[in-house]
Amino acid sequence: MEPILIEETPSKVTVKYDSVAVDLPESIREQHEKFWNDHIKINPHLRNGEVFTITQIKNTAKELQVTVAKTDYKHYLYTIRHKDCAFPCKVIFTCVAVITSDNYIAFGRMNDHTSTPGRLQFTGGGLDETDLNGSVFDLKKSIGKELEEEMGLQIESSYVKSFAPRFLKSKGTYDFWAVMFELRVDFTSNELRVMFDKHNRRLIEKGEQPEFEEFVFVLLEKAHVLDFIENDHSLKEDYLDPILMKYVRN
Q1: Average pLDDT value for residue range 177-193
Q2: What is the Cβ-side half-sphere exposure of residue 199, based on CA atoms within 13 angstroms?
Q3: Exposed/middle/buried for 242, CB within 10 Å: 0-12, 13-18, 19+?
Q4: Which of 136, 189, 220, 223 could form a disulfide with 104 if both were Cys (CB 3.0 to 4.6 A apart)?
Q5: 113: number of CA atoms within 13 Å, CB side?
Q6: Three-state SS string across 100-127, please?
Q7: Where do runs of H (alpha helix) occur along the chain?
Q8: CATH of domain 2-249
Q9: Considering only CA atoms, which of 107, 246, 92 is closest in space to residue 170?
């Protein structure tokens, strides 16, 4: 595993769709199928669906161009459960650091029905075909959809103070790539927590299962960030601690 790399987002990021699906060897597909069948006995809420894996990357100081092709969630799940596996699924996703008016950063704890129960991570998710504009993925639309689904926030609302891509994450545990947005809102951490709790209750009343069971708030001051990193031993996305340090260093 290479150390995680977090850089400022280049001025242009383009993710293109290659309509030719990934062609995996039959023996590899059999491994994925066996693992999937075993895993859904443990977590029957999992659903197989489309996932896009990176097939080509061109990265310069001014522009990132990524090409992806279609595979499935079985491929992705097998990859994150088997480090250094053959034919890994290498995804690019969007996520967002939500920062409150009293300078707290918010991230969620994944719910029990998800593939990574208890993991701390930013709001975000993988790309899907509804994000396509022709053959190019609309990254702003992708993360806007995740914000509305997971937190009940809308990027076009009056409470949004600023919203833009901020960081680009690569390398790390699985060499997944992420375009990391920053959303600053005109809510305090307490107000945002109340909004999130109401959003989750609405989802449950509709018979839906929230992605996050709770939101965690960390004050963006060095002492508070260091205390969180040293003393919170929850499972975390590999980018979380480095991003927190990036904010307090800046």
Answers
A1: 97
A2: 20
A3: middle
A4: 189
A5: 10
A6: CCCCEEEEEEECCCCCCCCCEECEEEEC
A7: 26-42, 73-81, 139-151, 189-205, 222-231, 240-249
A8: 3.90.79.10
A9: 92
